[in-house]
Amino acid sequence: MEFEFTKNTLMGEYYVSCNMEHQVIARWLQEEIGKDRTKIEQVFSLLDQVHQSPAKEWKLAGKEISLSVIGSEVTVQENTLGYSHDIEFESEFELYDSESTAECGLEDFESMMRQWLEFIQRY
Length: 123
Fold this sequence. Notes:
Blueprint: E1 3-8, E2 13-18, H1 23-33, H2 37-52, E3 57-60, E4 65-70, E5 73-78, H3 92-98, E6 101-105, H4 106-122
Antiparallel strand pairs: 1-2, 3-4, 4-5, 5-6
């Protein structure tokens, strides 16, 4: 997973950029976690729990985007995708859904989180 962190020094805001297939992960980190130390600690605590019980599904619900971890697979998904529906949507919506959910390996995700923490502490 490729990502880049930037800071707007005039506004003091932090930004995350990812490739297209991981864009929702960038949005999750930027909008749901940001530089909030409590939320960052919650993520690291969840990751510790994942290592202790990898067979269990672990979730961290956000206001608009949530994190789910099972074993070594991390899924970040917009909460609106969790609804159930009986209507079959046409294939044009599959592209939209692909922008609303992303998966990556646990190791890559942990690396991104450690680098994010270092970045916001440094700048």
